[in-house]
């Protein structure tokens, strides 16, 4: 038996952890403990088949902890939140999932008002990007329609919570581009420049205030990964790396100056 994952609350008052601590279930449950005591609160119920995955994350105000769990042992992984106190309500916040489908991962917005998650929730065969409210089901798809079987990859909230950037082959199954959406999905923009078929954006980073995005891509030359910046709505797209010797070189690590 072991603790499989743990996370400090941002206010340092609690530690949430996942463990197969209770003999009654022999499966993983979610617990919360104060940092100076051995008395932990089991936050998930002792029910047959419930298994909490290792994915846990606190809201920025430390009032709720989010986690993924299979509650009926059928391979369906859903997103839940709960408070760290014994007997707190369990909030299922992801949308309706067919048996065997799952929420892959999730991330709280910096302001704590929404949770973004990837899931094969709609019948497209791929992972799409959704947001939901912290304590009730309010799921909204924020990625646009994807070609059949394609998926959203890496995603990240802007520091000001106004946008979510993500990588996806949204327009061309052979090309991974950078997009951003508002948290309610009302606006969805391609941030990277128009990439020819077969080229990809492979990494991006938000500017510290959320005013822009830097990304690496072979946008202009299929053989060279160069560095670009853009506003979150895709305007003012600019190559900022220097000139490379033709057919050689690439931008490696990059980051914004604080």
Quantity of strands, as a count: 20
What is the approximate shape?
A: elongated
The average pLDDT is 93
The helix tally amounts to 0
Q: SSE order, as H and E?
A: EEEEEEEEEEEEEEEEEEEE
Q: Structural class, from secondary structure content?
A: mainly beta
Distance N terminus to C terminus?
43 Å
Structural Rg: 20 Å
Proportion of beta-strand residues: 35-45%
Low-confidence stretches: none
In short:
The chain has 258 residues and is an all-beta fold. The protein contains no helices and 20 strands.
Describe the protein in words.
By secondary structure, the protein is mainly β. It is built from no helices and 20 strands. It has strands spanning 3-8, 15-19, 29-33, 40-42, 51-58, 65-70, 78-82, 91-92, 103-108, 115-119, 128-132, 140-141, 152-157, 164-172, 175-181, 188-190, 201-206, 213-217, 226-230, 238-239. Strands 1-2-3-4 form a 4-stranded antiparallel sheet, with no helix packed on it. The N and C termini lie far apart (43 Å). The mean pLDDT is 93.
List keywords for this structure.
mainly beta, 4-stranded antiparallel sheet
Q: What topology does this entry show?
A:
Elements: E1 3-8, E2 15-19, E3 29-33, E4 40-42, E5 51-58, E6 65-70, E7 78-82, E8 91-92, E9 103-108, E10 115-119, E11 128-132, E12 140-141, E13 152-157, E14 164-172, E15 175-181, E16 188-190, E17 201-206, E18 213-217, E19 226-230, E20 238-239
């Amino acid at each position: 038996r072991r603790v499989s994952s743990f996370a400090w609350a941002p206010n340092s008052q609690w530690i949430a952890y996942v463990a197969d601590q209770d003999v009654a279930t022999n499966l993983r449950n979610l617990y919360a403990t104060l940092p100076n005591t051995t008395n932990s609160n089991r936050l998930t119920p002792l029910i047959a088949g419930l298994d909490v995955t290792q994915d846990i994350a606190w809201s920025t105000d430390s009032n709720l902890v989010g986690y993924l769990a299979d509650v009926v042992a059928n391979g369906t992984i859903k997103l839940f939140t709960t408070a760290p106190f014994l007997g707190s309500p369990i909030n299922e916040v992801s949308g309706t999932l067919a048996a065997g489908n799952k929420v892959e991962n999730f991330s709280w917005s910096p302001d704590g008002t929404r949770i973004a998650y990837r899931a094969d929730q709609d019948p497209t065969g791929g992972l799409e990007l959704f947001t939901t409210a912290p304590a009730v089901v309010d799921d909204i798809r924020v990625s646009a329609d994807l070609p059949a079987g394609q998926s959203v990859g890496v995603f990240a909230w802007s520091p000001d919570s106004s946008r979510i950037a993500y990588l996806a082959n949204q327009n061309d199954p052979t090309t991974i581009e950078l997009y951003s959406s508002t948290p309610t999905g009302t606006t969805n923009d391609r941030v990277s420049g128009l990439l020819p078929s077969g080229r990809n954006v492979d990494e991006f980073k938000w500017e510290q205030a959320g005013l822009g995005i830097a990304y690496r891509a072979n946008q202009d030359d299929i053989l060279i990964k160069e560095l670009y910046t853009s506003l979150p709505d895709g305007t003012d797209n600019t190559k900022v790396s220097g000139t490379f010797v033709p057919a050689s070189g690439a931008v490696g690590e990059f980051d914004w100056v604080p």
